[in-house]
Amino acid sequence: MSLERFPVGMQLDVSYPEFRVSLTLLSVDRLQFEIKQGPFARTEIVDIKVIPLGNSLFAVSWQERDGATVTNVQDYDRGLVHSHATLPGGQFLRMTGTFEVTRPADVVFDDRPRHNRALVLEAMTALFQRHDASVVERLYVADYIQHNPAIPQGRDALQALVAGMSKDVYYEPGLMVAEGDLVAIHGRIRGWSDAPQVVIDVFRIENGKLAEHWDVLQGEVPVNTALGGIAMFDPTEGVRGQASAVVDDGLRQPGAGS
Q1: pLDDT, mean of residues 4-21
Q2: Percent of the chain at pLDDT above 70?
Q3: Residue 49: left if φ>0, alpha if ψ -120 to 50, beta else—which one?
Q4: Which domains does the chain have, with CATH numbers?
């Protein structure tokens, strides 16, 4: 995560339990906050220090005119601001608020596709290569939605399925496509049925976990040389797809076509 990805120009309305504050990210060095109501009501522009923490997380700290010090952990994946403030009188506040973007950043970045690709790849290889049922709780939401009619709903059902899976089941990941909170992965699975199958799995990610799943499976058919000899699945397609994703991420950097 680079400081260049701090969303300069963005305006956020943050809702804490006791009050609301509008934040305008003027630069990587300055921020304006406006509290319209309550005992903390005021508007001020402050000098800030921004530290990228990775995964669309930034630590943003400043000191206000009255001596109050504030550190925000701004989480743009989950839409949360974790705020820690020490007031002039010594009172210490810990607050977490949700935010709404009221003005977009000057340059828009979306790191979710990269994070989500990694999450899906970890899940598919952990469950269907290593048969590690212990990762299900960490990677999947409790009320996991399953669109495959042969698999029951919920995370617990998936964990039980993996725990009882035949050792013959083995998954090979291939091409991956990600946009927003959706990821599609093309792969081949052996041991799930009598013959190898080529499968496309589509996942929806919510708050950093897998929340919903669709799949389409097709029995793998040998290459028909009379029609051109193209295989249904090529294990190297995943490597080529990852290279394309790296190029795409690079094109979204400032000064490189953004």
Answers
A1: 93
A2: 89
A3: beta
A4: 3-103 (2.40.128.20), 112-251 (3.10.450.50)
Q: What tens digit of pLDDT does each residue of 62-120 get? A: 999 999 999 999 998 889 999 999 999 999 999 999 999 999 998 877 777 888 999 99
- pTM of this prediction? 0.58
Tokens of 208: 């950093």
What is the Cα–Cα distance from 76 to 53, expressed in whole angstroms? 12
pLDDT in tens, 117-171: 999 999 999 999 999 999 999 999 999 999 999 899 999 999 999 999 899 999 9
Query: 17-30: string of b/e by CB count within 10 Å (b at 16+)?
Result: eebbbbbbbeeeee
